[in-house]
Every structure is written in structure tokens, then in C-alpha cells.
Design a protein that fits this description.
binds calcium ion, homohexamer, Ribosomal Protein S5, domain 2, 9 strands, two-stranded antiparallel ribbon, seven-stranded mixed β-sheet, 29% helix, alpha/beta, globular
Chain lengths: 201, 201, 201, 201, 201, 201
């Protein structure tokens, strides 16, 4: 425990093991791309939804939309449809002093929610970005090139992108592109299948 | 699933099949017309109404008016008049970063609500615009020409408009006008009959 | 249903039949007088009051005052004094994008509320204006001349005005004045008696 | 009911008979003194307090203070100490478009509340002004001269003022002073005794 | 009751007898020191806390902190630990038009609360000032000299100050200092013991 | 109790004994470092969380995140998972007039909460700083040098810092560094173990 000891932790790098309730998103800021973590925590409660991490209104609405998608899809996902009556849900995006906004974390939030509610871990090498609609449609977003570069720097291997962003892949340098696997999805269900460990894994 | 695969999805074009709880509206912005989707999702709950998609105050009030119209008309529409006690309703308008306002999505919202509550699918080729009142009156709106052009571009075939906008049809280029069927309505009930699949279809 | 068909509807003109829960008010704007409709809708609920139509704070308080007047007077009006426990009330003023404010729709709101709660229709040829107090006093308002002209244009026949506005009648052109019947009232009860169909009609 | 009929009503003048739940206050504006009516209405409910009439924050707090004074003093005033569980209280100050603020209507509000809760009428010739504290202390206020002149104009006969405003009486013209009876009080209970009809009257 | 009668009341001077639920604080404004009264009123209710008197955010938080201190300390103070379930608490600071802010009334608010909850009267000759923490620590505040002068003018005899303000006593003119008794406290419990009458008094 | 007596108290210095529900944090302002106390108080209630001390939005969200971490970790910490149903929690940061913001008090708040909920005292010589995430990850913060100097001045002996701030230790003057013990942590659980007295101590 001396301060000269070996480092065990560096926030922002890919996790060292698959975790429950934490998904990795790709963000795009004026100074380039970044990764961010979406954390979901459940506790005994009465259905309150808490959103923290200096989130803007659009991102808060995106989280509400992701939650309604999960609630409406509860049965087919193996989630108790009344979980909201007995649990509070807290969604937090760390680095609490950094403002965050926009709809592009939608599928990341949905994935973290389903992981927390089903206890299925999220594969640690997967990053993702894409707006989600109430029906689970995945809509295109901006900053594909910068987001992909930051995902690569953070050590991620598989990148989930909206199908309607397909054309933007050509902007990514080929050397980077070859070290990553791209998954183009039009439905959040596809993203869940890619990111979540199977029930028997 | 290679990123070179064939595209299956493009948001903003007419759906490929009739859907439940999703209606197509016609919007009018400073840069021309556009189509938008109104999504409605129900989940087990206690009557909370959620409105997302960066909606302005007038559009939020329009959604509340559409919902009250549907609640007051529940019995004749075959909807459990107490549905609000056991369900939460979420109305979302995708492309969450784009601000939207105005009363002209009123009948579209009412149609999406009735579809979600009755499980009757909405005909995928129908687009609509018009303010709704508490009694279901359909009031005239602006931008008929631009809205109709965008509906045509999106592949829609039937356009529901307020009866009091009848005179504005002459502004639409004849070549476009001939490829579309116009339905002029003064009551939301007429719009519901046109847009929703029959119960025995 | 061709768009060349005969018009059946024009919003803002006198109704073609007596209706329940819709009263006609007289408004006064910087560009002259106008008529407006106050719509009231009841649905199964728990006493929530909803006010929509881009109403300013003074008009919202006026609606709350009208509702408290009706609640306090429930018994003598034949209304279940506990209606607020089992119903939600929505008051909407159409043309949702047009801002509206001021206390002068008070008696119109009270009349629409009593009509909705008693199911007594409102005479379609009656328009009215006047501030209401908690006790049902009718206070004078401005814009009598412009409001009366717009009422005449809309096809109304009977105009209910505050007694304390009596002196303003001389400002109305005689040709218009002769085609209208004026009812000067100091109590909202008088307005209700004039505007509502009798129980045995 | 012709508009040429005899006037029966003029708002702002002393009432023609003693009323329940309506007290007359004295206001002071940049253009001089005025009288105002405090109306209190009770209806079956769950303890909600509504304050309307374009009241500023200080006046709203003054009303809350007056209500807490009455609630704490309920037993000695002959009021059911649990009235707030079964009733909603609405306090309205007419002329809803005119902004009103300040603490000086405190004792007037307390008097109107006690009248509504005990059904004891308020003497129609009494006007009053003074800040109230939680304990019922009556604190001095400004504008005594202007307020008194407006009370005289409105036909009031008895004026209740804070004891600590005693020295301001000399500013009132003697001719006016002689036509009025002044009651200087340091406790709200004294004001209640003066303004309310006795139980056996 | 003639307006020429002898004055019985002047707000701001020391009370003429010990009272329950009213404590005297010392305030410091840009124009010098002043005394203020903290009034606490309890009524049958459900645990609502009301704060009035044009209080700023810091003073409101100070009141909440004082209340939490009292709630956590309820048992040792002889207060029913569930009083908040059956009572509403109203804290008011008279002279409702004068803005007040800052944390220095903390111990005064705690003293008034304990007096109201235990029915122990507060000694009328005691004034006090000091920030309170959740644990009842008393923190130093500013304006000791001005506050003490105003306490002296109001006729107070005993002044409770934070121990950490000890060094500021030397700034008070000796003639004043000799007519007052200073009590330096580091814990709110010490202030309560000094200001409240004993249970057997 | 003379004002010439010996000082017993000076706020901001290390406590004289281990306490329950009070943790010492390190703050960083434009004028240098400072220590602050996080106080937590529990009282019988219904799960309300109160946050006072002029806290900015980021600091409030940080407190909510710390609380959710504790709630999700309740069982392993020996805390009744339903404590929020029977208790209100008040978190206060003294010196109520001084604005405070930022996420760096996260682990301090978590430590104070766990102490209050488990009744385990906090070692009086420990100070700490670090952002907390929902999962209890400890993220790096700024101002390490200034914060450490102020901790030293306040008499603290053990400083808990985020592991990812390891490199900033070299900025601290060696003479100070040698008088302090540094604990670098990546998980809040490690901070709890260092700061809280053991159950059998
Ligand atoms: Ca980052
Ligand atoms: Ca491209
Ligand atoms: Ca679009
Ligand atoms: Ca035209
Ligand atoms: Ca109009
Ligand atoms: Ca005239
Ligand atoms: Ca007036
Ligand atoms: Ca004078
Ligand atoms: Ca004063
Ligand atoms: Ca000094
Ligand atoms: Ca400090
Ligand atoms: Ca460094």
C-alpha cells in the first residue's frame, strides 16, 4: 500500500473482466472521441429512476426511452415485468464533472439496463454507439471516425454501430479498421445479443 | 454481418409492414418538410405519461390533448376506460436531438395511442397532419405543400389532412398530387378509420 | 371524400348544434377581437386538473378559480360534490400555438365546466366574457367593442357581459347592436342560466 | 335584463350585506390606495391550499402564515383541528390581472379564513390592514394615509390598523378621520372579534 | 380602544414574558445589526416543513439542518421521535417583506423548535447567534459587534455566541459589554440549556 | 463560562475523538486547499434524502451516487437493505454559506454514510478525496498538492487518495510527505476498511 506500489487501475481502459450492469459507450466531443461507461445499479425501492453524471436533457430522454424499451420488452428478455414496482434504478455516467449530452448512448444504456436486470455480464471488449427508439430501432449518429479511434485506443475489439452509419466506415484508417470487428445493427435486440454473455456461458 | 453487407434499414422511409403503436406524421421546418414517427409504448404502471424527443411545450400540450381525447372516447373505441390505472404511457418522437414543436402532430399522436391501446396496426402507407382538440375536432395547420412533398419522397401513398386546409391542395404540384390520395377530415375519428387496420383484417 | 368535396367544417364559427362541455368565449388581442372555444373533458381519474392551450398564468388561475366556484356550488348545481375524487378534468383552449392570457374567460370556463359535469348542453348561439371570482361575482373586463364585433362575425346571437361593463355598450355600432341580444350579469349563476339548456329541454 | 336596466353591482364598493368568507383589505400601490377583497372557499378535499390572484411570493407566504396561525388556534376558535384533512382551501384575490404583493393583507386573510371555517359572517363596513405573525402578532405596515382614504371612498366605516401604526393616524385629514372609527390592535384575535359577527347575532 | 390610548406593543423589543416557540436571534445587515424573532408553530399534519419570511437558500438549509439535529436528538430531549408523522411544522421569521439569509440563525431556529416541541418557554432576556451543524456543533459567524449592540438596544441581557467567536468580544465597547452576560458555546445543547426554562421552573 | 475562559473548540481541526457519521474530506478552491466535514444524520422517516450546505449540482449527484453504491452494497456491509423505507437521511456539509461543488467528495460521503448506517466510528486522523462511481470505483481528482497541505495543517495523519492520482504525490514537498501516510485506493471498499474502526475495536 505504499504510493510507490504497482498500478492496478486506470479508468477509461477496457475492463479486465466481464461485468454486470456496466456497458462501454463511445462519445464524441469537440476535442475528439472518448469512451464512457454506463453504470446501472438496482436497489430495493419503488420504481424511481435516477440519472446522474451531468447529463443533458437529450441524454436523459434517451435513457428514459431505453428504459421504456426494456420495460415493454421485459417478458421476452426474461425480466420480471413488475421489477419497477420493487426496485429503484440508478443510471450513472462517471466523471461526474464532465457534461454529457446527445442521444447516441441509447443502445449502450439499454444494454447496461438489460445486463443489470438479467444478471448477464457484458463482454468487456465490446463498445457501442447508436440512438435507440421506443421500439428498439437503432438510428445513425455522428462522429463514427473519432469514436472508433478512441475505442481502439481503449483496447476494445468489437464495435457495434447503427446500420445506417455503414457508409461512414470508409473514413476510418485501414490499419485501425483491420484490428476491430464491426457489427452493424438496425435493432437493439441485435446489440444485446452481441454484447451480453449467453445465459449458459 | 460484415459492414459490406446489404442495407436492410433506412430511418425515415415508409415502414415495410404495418405496425402497432407507430404513426407517421408530417413536419414542417425552416428547411422544408419532413416526416416523423410517433412511437407509443405501454408498460405495466400507474398512469404516468412520459413525453420525449425534445418536444416543445405546445407539442407536449398537444399530446396531452390527444390522450384526453382518447380517454374520454375509450369506451366507443373498445379501450378499457381504466387503462391509465394499470399502465404507464410513453410517447417518443425519434431523432432525439432534433427540437420539435407545434400542435400539428395532434391527430398522429391520437392515432398512435389508439393503435397501441387496441393493438390494431397502422397502415404503413398513411401519413397525416392536423391539430386535434379535446373533442377530436381537426384544425387546419401550415406547410401543406412542403409536408406533402416530404411524404411523397418518403414513399407514402395516403395523406390525411384537415378539411379546413382544403384550399391549400392547389399549391401542390400536379405530378405529385396525382400519385397521392388525399383524405380531408374534420374529426379525428375519421382519421382513425382511415389509418388503422380493421379489427378483422 | 375527394378534396373537391363540399366543406362541412370551419373552426371559429358558431357550432351547428348545442354541445356538452364546450363554451364560446370572446377574446381581445392586439389585432382585434376573436372568439375562442373552451373545451372541458372528464375522464375516470383522481382529481387532476389539466390546463392546455398555451395559457398564461393569469388565465390558469382564472380556470382554477372557476373550478373552485363550481366545486363550492356543486350541491346547488346538482353535481356530485366528490366528483373530483373519481375524475380528472382537462380544460383545453384550441389553436394550441396561440398564446392566451387574462382573466376574462372566467365565466366561459365556469359554464363549460358546469355543462360537462351536468351533461346539460350549451346553447350554440351564446358567447360570453367576464372575470369570475370565487363567489361567482362577475367583474368587468376590457375590449367590449372588439369582442362584440368578432362575436357577431362568428354568427353568435346572444352576448353575456359583466353588468359593470354596461357603459361600454354605447361604443358598439348601432347596426351590430341591433342584431345581438345583450345579457348583463353580476353573478355567474345568471350566466349559467342563460347559456345552459334547461334540464327538461 | 335590457342593458339599459338599473345597475345592481359595482365591484370595489362595500358589500350590501355581511358575507361569509370575504374580508375587505386595504392596499397601497404606486398610484395610491385601494381596497381589495380576500375570498376564501372551502370544498371537499385533502388539505390542498390554493392561492390565486397574481400574488407575489411575500403575499403567498403571508397567506401561509395566516393559515398556520388559524390551524394552531383552531380549538379556541371552535374549528375542527382536522379540517385540513377533509377540505381543500382556495384563497383568491379578485382582479386577477393585477399583481399584488406584500405582507399587509395578513390579518385580512386570517379573518376571511376564520369566517369561512366558522361560518360567522364578516361585518360589511369593516376594512383592515396589518402583517400577521405565526403567533398572531400584528405588525405595522406602510401607506396608512392612502389606504384610509380609499377605505373611506369605498364606503367603509370601521378601520382596523396595527397598534404600532398609531402615530400615522395624524397624517389622515381630520374631515376623513372623523367619519371613520379606528381600531388599533396588536393581536389578530382582536381583529377577529371586531370584524366577525358574534355567534348569536 | 381610542387611537390616542396608551401603546401596549412595539415589535422588535424584548418580550414582556417568557414564550413557547419564539426565540430571539441577532442579525447583521448592511445597515447594522438587528434582532429577529424565530417563530415555530405546530399543527396536526403529516410531517410537512414550511419556511416563510423571505428566507434565502442558505437560511432555509440552516433551518433544515436545525430540524434534523432536533429529530436525531429527539429521545434525549424528551421529544416523541415520531412527531413528524403527526405534525406539520411551520417556521416563520416576521417582517415578511425583509429578505433574510445566511446560516447564523441556526442555533436560534433549533432553540425555537425544541421549545415548541417540549412546551418549555424561552427566557425572554436571551438573544443568540451561531451556525449549527447536523451534530449540533456551533460554528463562528460574523458581525458580533453590530449584533451585540442591537441586542443591547432591544433590552436583552444574555447573549449566546459561538466559542470560536471569543476573540471578537474585545471589539464591543466596554460600557455595553458590562451590561450583558456572554455565554460562549461550542455545542447547541449548551445553548438550549441556557435559553430554555427548566422543566420544573 | 466567562468569555475569558480557555478555548475548547476550533472548527476545521482534526476531531479529538473518533465519531460516527462524520468524515473528513479534502477540498480544493481557487484560494488553495481546505478540509471539510461530511455529516450524515439518520432519523425515523420514509426514505427522503436531504442534501444541504450550498452544494452544486455535481456534488449533489455525487452524493446520490455514493448513496446508491451503499444501498446496492448494503448486505455485504451489514446494513439492513430496507433502511431507506424507515429512515430519512440528511447529508450536510458545514459552513453553510460557502458554495461547494465537484465530484471529489464522493468517497468521503460514502464513508460517512456507511459509518452512520453501521454505527462504526471513523478514525479521526484520516482525510480522503476521490470521485466514486456507482460500482465503487475511485476515480482521480485534481488539486492533490493543495489538498494534502491543508490536511497536514489540520492535523490529519492518513490520507486516502485515488490510485490513478499516484503520479501527483511527487508534487508534495518531501517534509510534508514524510509526516503523512498515503493510501492509494481503486475501490471505495478499500477506503471504508482504512477509515472505519473495525467492528470489534
Ligand atoms: Ca474520459
Ligand atoms: Ca463517409
Ligand atoms: Ca428526419
Ligand atoms: Ca393556397
Ligand atoms: Ca381564432
Ligand atoms: Ca364607453
Ligand atoms: Ca381595484
Ligand atoms: Ca406620521
Ligand atoms: Ca427589524
Ligand atoms: Ca477582533
Ligand atoms: Ca473551512
Ligand atoms: Ca505530477
Amino acid at each position: 500500500e505504499s504510493y510507490l506500489g504497482k498500478r492496478k487501475f486506470r479508468y477509461g481502459m477496457a475492463e479486465t473482466e466481464n461485468q454486470i450492469g456496466v456497458a462501454t459507450g463511445l462519445a464524441y466531443t469537440t476535442v475528439g472521441g472518448d469512451t464512457l461507461q454506463i453504470e446501472v445499479s438496482l436497489s430495493a425501492g419503488k420504481g424511481k429512476l435516477q440519472l446522474t453524471g451531468k447529463l443533458g436533457d437529450v441524454m436523459k430522454e434517451s435513457a428514459q426511452t431505453a428504459l421504456s424499451f426494456v420495460r415493454a420488452r421485459a417478458e421476452s428478455l426474461g425480466i420480471d415485468p413488475n421489477f419497477h414496482e420493487s426496485h429503484d434504478i440508478h443510471i450513472h455516467v462517471p466523471e461526474g464533472a464532465v457534461p454529457k449530452d446527445g442521444p447516441s448512448a441509447g443502445i449502450t444504456i439499454a444494454t447496461a439496463l438489460v445486463s443489470a436486470l438479467t444478471k448477464r455480464p457484458i463482454r468487456r471488449e465490446v463498445g457501442m454507439t447508436g440512438e435507440i427508439t421506443l421500439r428498439g430501432r437503432v438510428l445513425p449518429i455522428g462522429g463514427i471516425k473519432e469514436k472508433t479511434l478512441s475505442a481502439h485506443r481503449a483496447g476494445l475489439k468489437t464495435i457495434i454501430l447503427p446500420l445506417d452509419n455503414e457508409r461512414d466506415l470508409e473514413d476510418i484508417p485501414e490499419t485501425i479498421r483491420e484490428e476491430l470487428t464491426f457489427k452493424l445493427v438496425s435493432q437493439a435486440d441485435e446489440a444485446l445479443e452481441i454484447a451480453l454473455e449467453g445465459e449458459n456461458e
